[in-house]
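Methods — Computational structure assignment.
A single polypeptide chain was analysed. Its primary sequence is given first, followed by the predicted tertiary structure written as structure tokens.
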Amino acid sequence: MPTSADYSFEIAATAHSDVEEVLFSAADIAMRVAQLGAAITRDYAALDADELTVVGVANGALIFTADLLRRINLRTRFDTVRVSSYLDGTSPSAAPQFRSTVHLNLAGRHVLIVDDILDTGRTLSQLHSALLEHRPASLRTCVLLDKKSRRQTPFEAAYTGFDIPDAFVVGYGMDFAERYRNLPFVGVLRADRQVAGD
């Protein structure tokens, strides 16, 4: 009978000859997510926030958001928004496409946006502005990855997991053409695999 160790090896060995380099292992990510959850819990408790509304950005941040939610020791509500920036390419499109919006009432609530990666800053800046129109009591952002070298629109997250270089990354929910989301680590996709297809 296969063990969890066998399964981890199979994922690393097969799904991912397409990955040039692993930047953050599953263990690295788990440790950092626990630290982020503790910091968020502490900071919102200091605000006397009796409840936190978490808005995850689908699809890329769903795995990160799910893990982070389990590390936040506060009453929480959860919703998602869908925003497309990369489509099937490796560079963000000129204008982020908002494909859905939140359904929860955010007025007077403490709200935390959770996204996978802060890149040019355009998407999160626009999303932040859109959610401010709901008049939340506070609005902060948490990202797993920050690619500061790519910033075009001034925007900083209140909470960041890791800073990364200017490389196209996949895994832990992040994709290329809807592939690689299931990888348990974050890695750099090989240049020859960065070609859109079926």
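Note: The longest strand covers residues 76-84.
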